[in-house]
Amino acid sequence: MTALTATTTPVRPLTPATPRRRHFPVGKTVVSFVLLPFCVVMIFPFIWMVLTSIRDQNTVFGGSFIPTSINFHGYATAWTSIGFPLHFWNSLWITTVTVLGVSLLAALSGYAFAKLDFPLKNVLYLLLLTTLMMPATALIIPLYLELKAFGLLDNQLGLLILYISSSAPFSMFLMRAFFETLPDALVEAARVDGAGELRIFWQVLLPLARPGIATVVIFQFLQTWNEFLMANTILQNPDRLPLQPVLFSLMGQYATDWPALTAGLTLSIIPVVVVYVRMQNQFVAGMTLGAVK
Q1: CATH class assigned to 83-243+269-282
Q2: What is the mean pLDDT of each run of 10 residues along the chain (293 residues)?
Q3: Phi and psi of 30, rounded to 5°?
Q4: Integer Cα distance of 262 and 279 in angstroms
Q5: Are 150 and 158 in contact (CB under 8 A)?
Q6: Measured CA distances, 240 to 56, 130, 165, 215, 271 (Å)
Q7: Exposure on the CB side of residue 84, measured as CA atoms within 13 A
Q8: pTM score of the predicted model
């Protein structure tokens, strides 16, 4: 009977790990110092607007930057003097309908121009792009006469048609560029499985196009909510006006109630901030990762 002998390996003493050097982020620091003044310049008008809305009228240009006393009289004046709730509602529903209409047209046409083959496809797309080269101010008189001929002058429906038709080409251009980034293998696989084009669009590609839809929604909401020229030209009845032309009426020829004006502007940006904060999460890269096996 042989005895088994165990071999042991000598244990080396543990040596302390060499600490890793932490490199100072010089590049990020320089970029931060460069961008900081630009951020201050960009946010200064907003801070001035909010602070002016809560200060006294006689301290707008003669007092300190930070008001010594807080006064909400400007908000009460803006709320009652111009009928703020009515015009806020006008802007809200006009903007909502415009965003929905433009988003639907842009998504459908963007899918068609990116994934379908039909006669005169490139010609129609070039004609669509040419409409982006026309300045809006040059089209005011022709559009005014056209709406007058159709009996849509001083009508919110006519304003909706102008908003949707003038904003759709740029949104179509964005959605076409976004749909082209989606893989064609998804469309081909769905067609092999017997899916129709509408089902491919609705169930396959549209869920992947949420970042593009969010971009269109944000751009269109900002553009329509802040639009002034068309609304002030087409609508003559004060009760049908959206919010921006009515806020402009707070500016007097010889004197302006700056707390009331800035209070109205502060209230008017709340929907814009809400929409942007709500939709910004959709700007996520790589939505199609893992979609194709």
Answers
A1: mainly alpha
A2: 49 55 69 85 90 88 84 90 92 95 93 89 88 83 91 92 91 90 88 88 88 88 92 91 91 84 92 83 47 42
A3: -65, -45
A4: 26
A5: yes
A6: 32, 32, 20, 29, 19
A7: 18
A8: 0.81
